[in-house]
Amino acid sequence: MKAYLLALVAAASAASAQAADPMIAPAPPMPAAYDWTGAYFGAQGGYGWVAGEVPDDLFTGTKTESADGGAAAAFGGYYYQFPNDFVVGVNGEFGYNWNDNSYAIVSPYPILNGQSVTFGTEWRASVEGSVGYAFNRILVFASGGWTATRLEGSFSLTGKSYDEVMNGWTLGAGVDYAITDNVFARLKASYSDYGSTDIITQATGMAGLPDSKLSQASLMLGIGFKF
């Protein structure tokens, strides 16, 4: 009889404890962190500023002239994300610039004074390596590598047009944001240095004139697709 009463007391105590501490539903599982590993491609558009250090009077001194305008490009590449959220990658771009400028020559030589030189860039290409850090769906990165562009223009005195493909280096920084698992937005700023060229000598046919230097900055906004 005593054992029976003890069993009843134990059962009542268990029921009372269960009523006092109702079962709590388990928390939903946390969503998995975004993984940037994979190949991607996309398109971007924005604005570019070209700076040309050009001969002032064709024979002595230099001055800086600028040309700016719209820019558009296609891009593609590959990211690899490490377990510690560092991301490395390679990125290629090919696009077109709509910029040109014309400046008048100021020279003590009457035949040159007032003549005009035009210049601008057309297509641009680059291949860059990148390193970044992923904050889940936000990837902050820096990049750098090789770049090239086609410089074109003309000289009014001779009526000659000229063009040259210039090679150099480029540095960039940007942010990618994953809108969905397969679509991301990109904002990127870059600076490119294309070195120097004897393009003025080519345009005038006169040897020994100062070289011109060319650089470019751009700000681009794009959309990419990762797979």
From TrEMBL:
Residues 1-19 form the signal peptide. Residues 7-227 form the Outer membrane protein beta-barrel domain. It is found in: Cell outer membrane. One of its GO terms (cellular component) is cell outer membrane. Keywords: Cell outer membrane, Membrane, Signal. The keyword Cell wall biogenesis/degradation does not apply. It comes from the Bacteria. The keyword Nucleus does not apply. InterPro entries: Beta-barrel_OMP, OMP-like, OMP/PagP_B-barrel. Belongs to the Omp25/RopB family. This is Outer membrane immunogenic protein. It comes from Martelella radicis. The lineage of its organism: Bacteria, Pseudomonadati, Pseudomonadota, Alphaproteobacteria, Hyphomicrobiales.
